[in-house]
Amino acid sequence: MNGNIAFTGKISRESVESLIFNLKSEIGRQRVWIDSPGGTFEFFSILGPPLRRFGFTGVAKNIHSAAIALYLLSHKRYALPDATFFFHEVRAIIGNNAITVCDLEDALSFEQRELEGKSREVVEEMRRNLANAQSWLLSFLCEQSRVSRSVFLDLMRSEVTLSAREALNYGIVQKIVTEDEFHMI
Hints:
This protein is of the alpha/beta class. The chain has helices at 13-25, 44-53, 67-72, 104-114, 120-143, 149-158, 164-170, 179-184, and strands spanning 4-7, 31-36, 57-64, 76-86, 91-94, 97-100, 161-163, 175-176. It is 47% helix and 23% strand. It is globular and about 55 Å long. The protein starts with a strand and ends with a helix.
């Protein structure tokens, strides 16, 4: 194989396990092309360290949501000139509602409407889990880039889409390359 692995689907435990399998199968340079709409990342504490040990090179096309965590696990981070990076808060999907840790008013309203029959402890546990997930993600993002926790939190709350150039300025991307340039690396 040529050392290129395409990751174009949603982030899930199964898709990341498949990526690990593909990385194990590759010999030599390992490059992962990431064009993902995001997904879930609750398993990154388990699968993140093995992914990081592969030392793969990531190249970004469109990276949304949890795919940013996958991209930041790469040792070298390149982006195509037209790449985008979409940020949003950590969300829990309950029924048809998306609840974020920062939308406490919405969470309180949701609690009153949807969770009236459930115990207060269940609601508090849901809030703790959301806060823990967002805290872990913010810490990870800050460790892997030059961005402060408060700036990342602002990006997430604002649901911002960054261009490749903006992501480079934030330290998320290490270098912007064309597809031809990337194949020469």
